[in-house]
Amino acid sequence: MTNRDETTGSSGNVTNGTPGGGTADSLLQQVTLSSTGDLADALPYLLGYRPEDSMVLVALHDSGDHGRFGGRARLGIPADSSEWQAAARQLALGLVTGSARRGSAVTGMVAYVCEEPASGGTGRAVMERLRPLAQLLRTECGKLDVPVIEALCLSGGRYWSYCCSDETCCPAEGRPAGLPGTSVLAAAAAYAGLRVRGSLGEMRVRLRPWEGTAAVAAQETALDETAAALLPRLVEADGRASVAERTMELAARVHRRYAAEPSRPDPLDADLRDDELLTDEEAAALILGLQDRTTRDRAAEWMEGGEAEPALRLWRALSRRCVGSYGEHAAPSLTLAGWVAWSAGDDVEAREALAMALAADPGYLFARLLHRAVEEGLDPESVRGCLRAERARRVAAARPAVDGPPPDGSGPGGTSAGEPLDGMSRAEPPEEASSGAPAEVRATAHADGAGTRDDGSPAAVTVPPPGPVRGARGGPVPGEGGAAPANAGPGATAETVPVGGAAGRPEPCRVPVRGRPRVNRRGPGRADARLSRPRGGGGPAGGPGTQGRARGGRRREGM
């Protein structure tokens, strides 16, 4: 049972929306609810799903001769009745203050308590047991000077009013709730294209791990074997970066596989088909690979347009594969599912997925931040903008750090220079680049007077071919390698480039940065301890292979 605040509607973010732009708020402005039965039928449309074991408050606002619905908030009913007062206070205070923060004063409330009877129980017994909770909701709202206009109990297909004692309209045995889809509001919702999901339990089933089948044992075995295979690679110098790249390559392939398979309308059929599209070994590799924060952030970029729907199906499928002792490993995939749902305008699934992520790992920061943002009614566009900028920066950093493409017009692997590979960039940028350091710098070639001959004419520096260079995450930096270019002739081992212009002016040369540029601020002729000793491997003068040294061991300035 969950016990958390869920504020929906009138929050600046679309809730329970449709492709045509309709929402429950716009629908209810066109439909007049005039009876207790109308209010009971309206609850699933107000929330977008059928609540279970829940207490709900719906805000009312003055609007001329009629009131209008405002924000909605839900909490799971605590199992311990001693916690009811604190929960009622939290629910009322959160909705009132949240509405005030959005500039809309609450003038009234409608309260609901919902719980299905236990096996052999009755709805009336549930109504009597929850009567003290309904009274606490009324008193806590009253403390905030907000009256509760109506308080209802929904249980066992019937409803009761706690505010009316007239047996003629509110009998003790309650009144039967209308059949789903038969009310005036249901007809208006169908016409507007609004859909009401099943219960919260039915939504959670799509995200919960498998249970009690032979497939669970097979998946857990695959997770064990994959974890054992990954551990030795993660302790290697470049192993973590290699695992990250392989994870994203696999995720891109599976993502394309899901995009090629249209989703099915029935949730159960859709999930069964999605499970068939993913092998145990692929699921294990993705689950374990997504534990890396950077890999998870790259996967979060599939958040809009045609990428969002197959990504959401993939994250759901991975969440269902976190079986047995790997339950806490579901936090990244559940968070990604919540993020994509929120980005697509589905606040209901976003809340459930993020709450389940926090249940799997209460300290998972990304889930905590997103859950808070959804509850505050923030616009996901700010997060989308950050992820778009990160993707653009990474793709730009993956382009070769030289002017123009290679002579044959292709980059490594036969793809166009700078083109992402399998939907992802070929190389990860240096860690320091995130602080704003440019992907490349232009440095002037000086080396204790080197660069000009005695007569002032340009000198020449012999540059050996670039040595193998690893990026900050272990991947090869595009445009660098340990041998001459593939299209060079036999025996091509070095090239001679002029340093200095025709008039003796230094000629700038572009040098790729390895991490943050190291600058010698001591002035010409003064040794810099950081640049005094070359590292292994050859490279362009001042490039990564020599760490700022020109040929002959002389120090370069400007790096």
TrEMBL record:
The lineage of its organism: Bacteria, Bacillati, Actinomycetota, Actinomycetes, Kitasatosporales. Residues 513-524 have a biased composition (Basic residues). It holds the Pfam family DUF4192. InterPro entries: DUF4192 (IPR025447). Residues 8-17, 483-495 have a biased composition (Low complexity). Residues 472-482, 535-546 have a biased composition (Gly residues). This is DUF4192 domain-containing protein. Residues 1-26, 395-559 are annotated as: Disordered.
